[in-house]
Design brief:
Layout: H1 2-11, E1 17-19, H2 42-56, E2 62-72, E3 75-81, H3 83-101, E4 113-119, H4 125-136, E5 143-147, E6 149-158, E7 163-173, E8 188-190
Parallel strand pairs: 6-8
Antiparallel strand pairs: 1-4, 2-3, 2-5, 3-4, 6-7
Helix pairs in contact: 2-3
Length: about 190
């Protein structure tokens, strides 16, 4: 994964992009949007964590493939596959949140992805096509990623800087066997 990210960054050096820091790579599974995080009490947070722990015992760790890299007007994202285990995880996380809070989001996660960078300015169509050609040539063009836990986090987005960071509230391993597991570049998280 690190070689893939390094290749993408080398291919886009000088382009108007803010690359996501290695510690901030994430896949958003659920975004609590009913009220700001500072209004969620500790009791409410513990209820969410308890429901996540209970529901995630049913989901075993799995591996996905990261890539290809896809340029968008908003930045670069890594496509993820296969969809099925990620969608099943998202459904399980949603059910846990709904058990703890009821329907608590209006945010639609769409097709799950891993954001590599955010665009800091618009580029013309020729420049966009040039970025596409350059990232298409990056090798390796795919990387395996183990999904073995989720993180419940409070997110801070700084629009002017095009950054997303967070404070971790809880890390919840997948599966009934809750022993320690390995990690790759980042953690999967819900926000």
């Amino acid at each position: 994964m690190r070689a893939y990210i390094a290749g993408v960054r080398a291919a886009t050096e000088g382009d108007p992009l803010t690359h996501v820091g290695h510690d901030w790579f994430h896949i958003t599974l659920y975004q609590l949007s009913e009220k700001p995080a500072e209004q969620i009490t500790q009791v409410e947070r513990q209820a969410i964590v308890s429901e996540l722990e209970k529901h995630l015992q049913e989901v075993e760790p799995f591996s996905i493939t990261v890539g290809s890299i896809l340029p968008y007007a908003t930045g670069l994202i890594f496509d993820l596959s296969p969809d099925e285990p990620l969608n099943a995880l998202r459904t399980t996380v949603t059910r846990a949140f709904e058990a703890a809070r009821g329907v608590a989001t209006t945010y639609k996660t769409g097709v799950l992805h891993l954001t590599e960078s955010y665009a800091t300015q618009e580029v013309d169509l020729d420049h966009f096509h040039d970025i596409h050609r350059r990232v298409r040539r990056v090798r390796p063009s795919h990387a395996p990623l183990l999904v073995d836990a989720i993180e419940l986090v409070n997110v801070t987005a700084v629009l002017a800087e095009k950054t997303i960071t967070w404070d971790s509230l809880a890390r919840i391993p997948l599966g009934a066997n809750r022993g320690p597991r390995g990690h790759d570049v980042r953690h999967i998280h819900v926000r």
